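Subject: for your reference before the review

Hello V.,

The reviewers asked for a structural picture of the protein, and I figured it would be easier to keep everything in one thread rather than splitting it across files. Below is the amino acid sequence we used in the manuscript, unchanged from the supplementary table.
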Amino acid sequence: MSYQVIARKWRPQRFSDMIGQEHIARTLRNAVKSGRIAHAYLFVGPRGIGKTTTARIFAKALNCTNPKDGEPCCECESCRSIAEETNVDVMEIDAATHTQVEKARELCEDVLHLPISSKYKIYIIDEVHMLSKSAWNALLKTIEEPPAHAKFIFATTEVNKVLPTVISRCQRFDLRRIKARDIAGRLRLIADAENVKISDSAIRVIAQAADGGMRDAQSLLDQLISFFGSADGTPISEEQALSLFGLTAASDMVHLLEALLRNDRVGVITDLHSFAAQSKNLETLYEEITAWLRAILLCRILPDPDAVLEETPEKIEACCRLSKVTNPSSVQRLLETISASGYLLRDAINKQVFLESILLKAMRIAHAAQIEDLIARLNQLRGQGELDALKSVVPLYELPPGMVVAPADSSFVAKSHPASRQQNEARAGEPAPSPAASGKEEVRQSAPVKTTAAPEPENATAPPSPAAPPPKPEIPPVPEKKEPPREVPPPPPVPKPQPAPERT
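And here is what came back from the structure prediction:
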């Protein structure tokens, strides 16, 4: 018998086997019990959380000949044939390969036929957002008013691409990402049943790497068993799981984050170089950094972070210790700056250089003096009457020579120089030249300008007048060359007109 992967072998067969989707299972079970079955359902959610599995269980419950409290019995011919994917009345269609409108018309014709061996004819259409608009238009009337024996179950990961007219004709169910602790419990059950020895810390690593997807978690477990499984009975360790998935150990992450929070640029660059030398996945490292910063921020803000964070007690304790290194505002600025550049990292040519620049930029922004802090400090000093002490700490801007600060009632500070002041006084009585006479662009002033001359010192001497420049030598004019007049030839003689001959 050929090997069957864990994700298919351990696929849930009843509503009670579903993990993390209790709200969906309860609603569908009650619908089967009460007989309130809609004609179309839409299951929405990310990959690997059980959309198609839920559709299959629901199809078994609808066609089961011996349902028990809304659950399929999994023993009748209908349940077994659906589980084996041989039931002719339950059809699974991949919308990505049936996008043409002709396929939609064929489906509309097939709906009219009665089921062969089951109570309902059920159409499970996966990745339904891949259907073309013309195919949807061909299906609209059938979806709205199908025959009593036909039921539609749609599944999609991108509900925003589904037409609103289709969504309004369906009962929508949003499936959630599965919690890490629920995934870890399911993996422990599978490992014990498969006689696989694996440590709890390694299972937690798999649950965190799955990102809420049970199918991904089971695939990672299968991969880990194939790579490190041995007959000597040695359990799979956390270090082996981290090395296989390219993840970073908690101790190394704590060292990197402490350098980030302490504005230690050398430590950050050194740690990143070490991770790159170990062939770590830098995109995964970026996601880990953001997750740790979020946990650190929540540990500083929330009185009980265990109620929100789905982490191990050891990681929460480390985050609480790191949250005391700096203030929450710096952690928040770090998180905002790093998160804002994540989408660019995926397309970067040199990911190590780009990640280094992201972290250095985030540290510069997070640890820089903020305007709110400066204003608060100034208000505090003003209240304590210590603003005069700032003059010795922050010197005033020194004006260049000739610049004088105007009195309090003056609205403008003018430049003044002894030499230029005498010229201004000499020109004070002259009328201002017009723009046309001077040839310069006219300067318009919105308000009169008050100038204040600089006071002369008592024993000041007049500055020496600048020496006159030496006269320039005269250059003799270049004589103009006169060309001799050209002789114009006389015009040719004009012939005299001949008299016309007389007519006889």
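For the response letter, the relevant points are probably these. The domain at 6-174 is CATH 3.40.50.300 (Rossmann fold). The radius of gyration is 43 Å.

Happy to draft the paragraph if you're swamped.

O.
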